[in-house]
Write a structure and sequence with these properties.
alpha+beta, three-stranded antiparallel beta sheet, 19% strand, 5 helices, single chain
Length: 292
């Protein structure tokens, strides 16, 4: 599950790395095999049905169809805490190979070390909303602008079923835009929207199942409602330079400059802060379909 024995390792050209630095995203089609994608689809059902013990997920009765169970939420946060299958894909050798080239490519002395702090499983059945403009750095702060999302398409992602839309280059200045409640509940979920920029240059990121979109944490992106008759499933994990602290939360007695959450997973290279130890994984969180 963590390798591609039938494929050679991904070879990124220098131009690919520079495209990521300049535009803020990089599309790598066919990074996962058909068998790997099917394994993730099957595991998504297992997670949703409560096959992995978790106080946050009530096991679904056999009388409910897989489709009914999957439609009960918008996303599951941190599924790699529960599922060894998802955890294996968070550490997937092909994805790690790309991350080891791009995450800190904007830094003059980066040595390729990468760690992961989050995974999210989106199921997005027909009719489900997207998420309004936002920057992931708003939710996951890093010290050096190295946050990177790896968005695995578990279905062909298209405009019709609510693929990602990005604003190329919007990450370059490292500016975090303000947020507000949006006024489009028929299009987006309840999360706030970022505003204060020209969105006319946005482009859709369509790709077949098995492709992966890598994007910087400051890149403005959004997705629209699924207007197709099929799912638009995706596994999205977030990574960063392993040398950067992760001040995701500042606890009593800490300072923002030194706060560092340690529920992380080393992906590329040795963890320079391994001496700190690691926090035990917490629970998963189900993003509801309706605003609480």
């Amino acid at each position: 599950m963590t390798g591609r024995p039938d494929h050679a390792p991904v070879q990124l050209a220098a131009a690919d790395v520079q495209h990521y630095v300049h535009a803020g995203f990089l599309v790598v089609p066919g990074l996962l095999t058909g068998g790997e994608i099917e394994a993730l689809r099957t595991d998504a059902v297992a997670i949703a049905r409560g096959h992995y013990p978790s106080p946050q997920i009530t096991p679904a009765p056999d009388s409910l169809s897989d489709d009914t169970v999957l439609r009960s939420f918008l996303a599951i946060h941190q599924p790699h805490f529960l599922s060894p299958v998802v955890r294996a894909f968070v550490q997937h050798v092909g994805i790690a190979g790309v991350l080891g080239r791009i995450v800190g490519a904007h830094l003059p002395a980066w040595d390729g070390r990468v760690k992961c702090m989050q995974s999210m499983l989106f199921v997005k059945p027909p009719g489900d909303p997207g998420q309004a403009w936002h920057q992931d750095e708003i939710y996951i702060p890093t010290r050096d602008r190295s946050l990177c999302g790896a968005w695995i398409a578990l279905d062909d992602a298209s405009v019709d079923n609510g693929c990602l839309w990005v604003l190329p280059g919007s990450q370059r200045l490292g500016y975090l835009y303000p947020q507000r409640a949006h006024q489009q509940p028929d299009e987006f979920d309840f999360a706030a929207e970022s505003y204060g920029f020209d969105e006319t240059a946005e482009i859709p990121v369509e790709l077949p199942a098995g492709g992966v979109v890598f994007f910087n944490g400051y890149l403005l992106h959004r997705s629209r409602r699924n207007r197709s008759s099929g799912y638009r499933r995706a596994l999205v994990s977030h990574y960063m330079n392993a040398w950067s602290l992760l001040p995701w939360e500042v606890r009593a007695g800490e300072r923002p400059a030194t706060a560092d959450r340690r529920c992380v997973l080393p992906i590329c290279g040795a963890d320079p802060y391994a001496w700190k130890g690691y926090e035990e994984p917490g629970g998963v969180w189900l993003r509801p379909r309706q605003q609480p």
